[in-house]
Amino acid sequence: MKIAITGATGFVGSRLVERLQQQSHQILILTRNTTFARKVFPAEVFTNVEIVAYTPTTSGAWQDTIAGCDGVVNLAGEPIAEKRWTPEEKQSILNSRQLGTQKIVEAIAKANPKPSVLVNASAIGYYGTSETATFDESSPSGKDFLAKVCQAWEAEAQKVKDAGVRLVILRFGIVLGLGGALGKMITPFKLFAGGPIGSGRQWFSWIHIDDLVSLIVQALTKPDMEGVYNATAPNPVRMNDLSQTMGEVMNRPSWLPVPGFALEALLGDGAIVVLEGQQVLPKLTLETGFEYQYPKLQPALKDILH
């Protein structure tokens, strides 16, 4: 297949490109920074990769490159838990997803021949946060800022169906790998200063990066997979369990809690992503027959941390 990818230089995207290259697919990378993309994907190693400059929120000649692609994977979006949520940052988080998806859908609608499938990222932030509720793909959306971002993001993706293109929306949980949220948590544990963040009671719905990549590949290649699926492992844990398991796997203590106010001082509203979780189950994902390589947390952490 020939697959166009946005967000390809990111934590998930770069692993996806590696997998697709191994499987001999052709990959078209749409990126804001072609110099950086060429460093991440050197031509002598990534022989199947073509790199094209694009401005995610603006129509342009880049949209013509979608014609002739078999599938599109849209992973682009401003990081959510990296900076304080100023009004400008919130607008940037929303625009990068809503407008970015709108321009991808526009490109697909214009393409001749058209891709047969769009795999669009979303997030479990769609459901809002709760210490007590359990959510699956049929649960209603939440009311907070992230829930509204996810609603707007998904609404733009839905429009691709008007062009007769199959749509798969994957609501990502917290992706575990050497990077992302886990990457930030590893350092305190290495320094014997690890522990639960906030109350420790909040839910942590996670997925191993290799399972997420496998799920994206399944969404691209399985013609009867359509609609919204939770990209989370079937066994979410509470934050206390996560830090205890990290301590066991790394052979480090895990009793030094990180108070919520310390994270809020750093991230402001952005701290909500870690301080208030949600228990999300991949009901429909399991019904597709998807087989997790890492359904349980301890083997997932062992694979990553060893």
Summarize the structure in words.
The longest helix is centred in the first third of the chain and has 24 residues, at 87-110. It is globular and about 55 Å long. Helix 1 crosses helix 6. The chain has helices spanning 11-22, 34-40, 87-110, 145-158, 180-190, 209-221, 239-250, 260-267, 272-275, 283-287, 297-305, and strands spanning 2-6, 26-31, 49-53, 71-74, 117-123, 134-135, 166-172, 174-176, 203-204, 206-208, 227-231, 237-238, 279-280. The chain has eleven helices and 13 strands. The chain is α/β, with parallel strands linked by helices and 306 residues long.
Summarize this structure briefly.
With 306 residues, this protein is an alpha/beta fold. The protein has helices spanning 11-22, 34-40, 87-110, 145-158, 180-190, 209-221, 239-250, 260-267, 272-275, 283-287, 297-305; strands at 2-6, 26-31, 49-53, 71-74, 117-123, 134-135, 166-172, 174-176, 203-204, 206-208, 227-231, 237-238, 279-280. Helix 1 packs across helix 6.
